[in-house]
Amino acid sequence: MKIIFTLLFLFAVLTSPVALRAQVFEPEKIKKTSKPLVSVPVIVNDREGRYIPGLKKEDFAVYQDGVKQNITYFATYDEPINIALLLDTSVSTQDTLKRIKDAAKDFIELMNPNDKCLIATFDSQVNVLNPFTSNQQTLKDALDKIQTAKEERTVMHRAVEQITQKFFNNIQGRKAIVLLSDGKDYGSFITKDALLNQLEESDVSIYTVFYKTGVNSKRVIIGSDGTLKEKNESKPQKKKSRKKKKGYSVFIPAQVGLPSDEAIEFLERTADMDAIDSLKTMSDTTAGRFYVSDTTKLRKTFKKVAGELRQQYRLGFHSKDGATDATIQEIIIKVDRPDAVVRVRGKFREK
After folding, report:
1. Numbered ranges of CATH 3.40.50.410 in the chain
2. Which residues, including other chains, have CB under 8 Å from residue 158's CB and lie 6 or more apart?
3. Do residues 351 and 36 make contact, with C-beta atoms less than 8 angstroms apart?
4. Which of 21 and 286 is assigned the larger pLDDT?
5. Can you tell me the distance from the alpha carbon of 137 to that of 225, in angstroms, rounded to the nearest whole number?
6. Angle at 91 between CA 90 and CA 93, to 5 degrees
7. Rounded (5°) CA angle 308-272-187
8. Measured on CA atoms in the order 340, 343, 349, 351, is the torsion positive or negative?
9. Which end of the chain is more exposed for a tag (fewer CB within 10 A), N or C?
10. How far is it, in rounded angstroms, from Cα 221 to Cα 102?
């Protein structure tokens, strides 16, 4: 009888309202105290810039503010990629838009079946042509509809902000923006510095492809690192002086207040330098890469971008410290290879 009574007592306790409440609220308590996964895209090359494949989780070490972290997630380049293809359709692209669209179609054909792509354009406003999809024909049809804008404004900063904040917000996995532009922003409400602060908090890598526009574009050579140089042009031969003909001549004074050709070229050069700095900084901040391309070579450039998007590792860890939402953490990734060069986002904001 004692054994039967004991079993009945245990049954009554386990089915009581108090015990049931404990079973319900315990998982919720664990959820509140657990820290979210911090996802870090990592690119590892050798000294010659070649991708180093075959690395394992044990080859990496992650440090947050000097504290070594436990790597709880590890993925290789086989992981599907979510790509936002962001194209500049401002007035400056009028003569090159067809080549841009053709190169973008070639880029789409390089996608794997599980990859997803969103296509958006920007000029005086941001236009999202389709949501993320793996259907290549849908993406190509969206590209066919793109037209050059008639207004002069180019809201590049706002376009990057909207795509990063709104369309990648609930996306899991590897995320990247491929941005094709001359880098000149006219009319965005968000400043360059404010945008960079937001990009530090995101886990979206930005690959920027710069192409030259403007009256000075043919006289400027841009290196792969973004440095500008003037072309060495041979001095024009002096024309033989003609004999003055007899007759009357009329002198028309130049219009006052118009900039000289030299001043226009200087402004264009300065604008190119600012544009390049904006694109490079966005890529460097997000562990992406900056490219320079003429529109005639866009297909080759897009192929390089697609290749590098495949050549990534992604590490994840749960932060050990108790950082607040307003704290920016610094990350250092080390690889146990003597010739390894690591490219990684250096900061993130604890969420």
Report:
1. 81-231+261-310
2. 122, 126, 187, 188, 189, 190
3. yes
4. 286
5. 35
6. 75
7. 95
8. negative
9. N
10. 25
Region 282-289: mean pLDDT is 89
CB 328 within 8 Å of CB 246: no
pLDDT value for 14: 38
Report pLDDT digits (tens) over 194-213.
Answer: 999 889 878 899 999 988 76
Q: pLDDT tens digits, residue range 236-266?
A: 555 555 555 555 555 555 555 555 566 556 5
Residue 340: C-alpha distances to residues 42, 48, 112, 174, 307 (Å): 12, 10, 27, 22, 19
Q: Are 91 and 150 in contact (CB under 8 A)?
A: yes
For residue 189, the SS3 value is coil
Structure-token match 């749960």, residue found:
318
Q: What is the CA radius of gyration of the chain?
A: 28
Residue 181, strand partner residues: 210
Q: Quick one: pLDDT at residue 308?
A: 83
Taken in order 201, 204, 205, 209, the sign of the CA dihedral is negative
Judged by average pLDDT, the poorest of 4-13, 206-215, 323-332 is 4-13
CB-side neighbour CA atoms (13 Å) of 321: 15
Beta strands in 167-234 (DSSP E): 174-181, 205-210, 220-222, 228-230
Residue type, 4: I
Pick the CATH number of 81-231+261-310 from 3.40.50.410, 3.30.360.10, 1.20.1250.20, 2.60.40.420: 3.40.50.410
Do 133 and 100 contact (CB within 8 A), yes or no? no
